[in-house]
UniProtKB/TrEMBL annotation:
Domain EAL: 312-566
Pfam families xref list: EAL, GGDEF, PAS
Taxonomic classification: Bacteria, Pseudomonadati, Pseudomonadota, Gammaproteobacteria, Oceanospirillales
Coiled coil segments of this chain: none
GO biological process, one term: regulation of DNA-templated transcription
Domain PAS: 9-49
The protein's name in its UniProt record: EAL domain-containing protein
Organism expressing this protein natively: Vreelandella nanhaiensis
GO MF entries: catalytic activity
Gene3D superfamilies found in the cross-reference section: 3.30.70.270, EAL domain (3.20.20.450), PAS domain (3.30.450.20)
Domain GGDEF: 169-303
Length: 579
């Protein structure tokens, strides 16, 4: 009888590692030692960070730690490991948290190995997908839900439009997109995702008239054809009922779940002739409006909307072209200490040198960029340009803190930290603590814990964070509790009214007292007169920016301004009151 072979973790063809709650390595198998060149005693008790590149340390703090805290595990995350020979080696890690012993179990493999596996998998997957799509076009049914598919609905719509033209009856086309489906799929896997789609398909068919038609368009998108629609309000009413049915909690196996749906709907006939495909696009656009308006609701398409969309599109094209032609420029507004007169920093504020309309302020073009790839590209441009300018000034002996404004959607974008690290790595000699990010307090921060970990990662890099327009947001204090912040910028509306409104003065005093108590830095915006400056200093807010000190100016004007400021302007403006 042969003896059974005993395997140990040392025989595993991947790296296995265990860390404690202080990131210290308590175990690593032979693979890690051999492959990455460490000896066993080098690894035991070592800080996991000593094996990771700087960027990976950030990813660890910003993504892996919150993910593990939330879900207990993370899968297939790419990091860079520093080998014992100090070479950088890309790796793929997965981790599980053991809550009993408060340990994290890691599996680690080199990227080349996982790439091979991945390539094989994608090859097989694409072959399978080709087969499936062939089968799908042969049949008119969506295999998962049993509903008609896109091809079937399009055919049906063509026929119906032909016959409606003859009999003149009205109908509606609705586009349904589930809100939060991706999270269910990502969090609980495809099995649960598939069951959810089947259940939603049942709810859709079960809550419509028998001669209405529901088709699955793909993913979590469905299209409904509603017959005999007498008025827009009736259609909206019945779809609103449908939305609340879809939002009812449900269970997959024993797992309690809930999601909602956004529905866009368009009516036929219309003033102008439309094609079937156009109707679906209109419903899709209206669905998008429903998402923007906060999801879980119905939005009716109207042709004005179409005009707005077209305008938005052409504005975006113009902005993209302006970026290419270098028409954007950063202006810089000084920030000073109003007690000593010292200029300690500048805020970068974007301007568009429009060839026809002249100099345009951010309010005229930033809103249309919200949540668009062009907006992200412009955000990256702002950071790069500001850093570049800071470097030029530093080389001339001007040491200034430079701050940039970052929109909420940019900050929350998964790519943000990677972009920022990449840009910063082009300026290795700049002291990071001289760079500051201003986060708009009112900007929509959807996932506070995510933003908080991003800001933490920024601070780990040495960057300072300031909360902009402080006091105007609906949740100033709760944001402060959750977000790691160095400085509060008091919104200019409070400063503006402090001399005339007791209410605003009281808020201002409250914010100043609060900042002192908790050790935040303070900068007042909108300092427009000497009285504002003096009163702010009396109240305990020494730092300010505003047109009394200087308007935002192009970079080339700054050296002259600062020379004049120190030579005479500051003494004149502050009547020699500086200490
Ligand atoms: P903000 O961050 O509150 O910037 C200060 C705004 O106040 C600037 O307007 C500035 O010109 C104006 N200002 C300065 N001193 C005074 C004063 O004494 N009185 C008054 N009433 N206003 C003063 P601007 O340049 O039009 O910028 C408006 C907003 O646009 C900024 O508000 C910021 O939220 C956003 N913004 C500007 N540049 C950028 C950028 O590069 N990226 C992003 N994402 N947002 C930017
Ligand atoms: Ca700002
Ligand atoms: Ca502000």
């Amino acid at each position: 009888m042969s003896t059974p072979t005993l395997f140990s973790l040392d025989d595993f063809p991947v790296g296995c590692m265990v860390t404690d709650n202080k990131r210290h390595i308590v175990y690593s198998n032979r693979y890690i030692e051999e492959y990455f060149g460490y000896s066993p005693h080098e690894l035991v008790d070592a800080d996991l960070f000593s094996l990771l590149s700087k960027a990976s340390q950030i990813i660890y703090e910003a993504y892996i730690v919150p993910l593990i805290a939330r879900e207990g595990c993370c899968d297939e995350i790419r990091l860079t490991l520093v080998t014992s020979a100090e070479k950088l080696m890309p790796i793929v890690v997965s981790a599980r948290h053991d809550s009993v012993y408060d340990r994290i179990f890691w599996s680690i493999s080199s990227v080349s190995r996982s790439n091979q596996l991945f390539e094989k998998l994608t090859e097989t997957k694409s072959l399978l997908e080709q087969k499936v799509s062939l089968l799908r076009t042969l049949k008119d049914t969506d295999p998962l839900t049993g509903l008609p598919n896109r091809a079937a609905l399009t055919k049906y719509l063509d026929q119906e439009m032909l016959s409606r033209k003859r009999n003149g009856m009205a109908f509606a086309v609705a586009f349904v997109d589930l809100d939060g489906f991706k999270e269910i799929n990502d969090r609980h896997g495809h099995h649960v995702g598939d069951k959810t789609l089947q259940l939603m398909a049942e709810r859709l068919t079960g809550n419509l008239k028998s001669d209405d038609m529901v088709a699955r368009f793909g993913g979590d998108e469905f299209v409904i054809f509603l017959k005999d629609c007498f008025s827009a309000s009736l259609v909206e009413e019945s779809l609103t009922r449908l939305v609340s049915k879809l939002a009812e909690p449900f269970k997959v196996d024993t797992l309690p779940l809930n999601l909602s749906a956004s529905i866009g709907v368009t009516l036929y006939p219309q003033a102008k002739d439309v094609e079937p495909g156009q109707l679906i696009r209109q419903a899709d656009q209206a669905m998008y409006q429903a998402k923007l308006a906060g999801k879980n609701q119905v939005c009716l398409f109207n042709t004005d909307n179409e005009v707005v969309q077209k305008e938005k599109h052409s504005e975006l094209l113009a902005i993209r072209a302006a970026m290419e032609f270098g028409q954007f420029e950063l202006y810089y507004q000084p920030k000073i200490n109003m007690r000593t007169g010292k200029v300690f920093g500048v805020e970068a504020l974007i301007r568009w040198n429009h060839p026809v309309e002249g100099l345009k302020g951010p309010a005229t073009f930033l809103p249309v960029l919200s949540n668009t790839p062009t907006g992200l590209a412009l955000g990256r441009w702002v950071i790069t340009t500001a850093l570049c300018q800071q470097q030029i000034w530093l080389q001339k002996g001007l040491k200034l803190q430079v701050s940039v404004n970052i929109d909420g959607y940019h900050l929350q974008h998964p790519q943000f930290l990677r972009d920022l690290s990449a840009i910063l790595s082009d300026f290795p000699n700049l002291p990071k603590q001289l760079f500051e990010i201003e986060v708009l307090e009112t900007s929509t921060i959807e996932d506070v814990s995510h933003v908080s970990s991003v800001l933490n990662a920024c601070r780990l890099m040495g960057i300072r964070i300031s909360l902009d327009d402080f006091g105007t947001g609906y949740s100033s204090l709760s944001h402060l509790r959750d977000l790691p912040v160095d400085t509060l910028k008091i919104d200019r509306s409070f400063v503006k009214n402090m001399l005339t409104s007791n209410n605003d003065l009281a808020i201002l005093k409250g914010v100043i007292g609060f900042a002192h108590a908790f050790g935040y830095g303070l900068v007042a915006e909108g300092v427009e007169t000497l009285q504002h400056s003096q009163r702010l200093v009396e109240l305990g807010c020494e730092c300010g920016q505003g047109i009394y000190i200087a308007k935002p100016m192009p970079a080339r004007a700054f050296p002259t301004w600062i020379d004049e400021w120190y030579q005479q302007a500051c003494q004149e403006k502050y009547k020699n009151s500086f200490v």
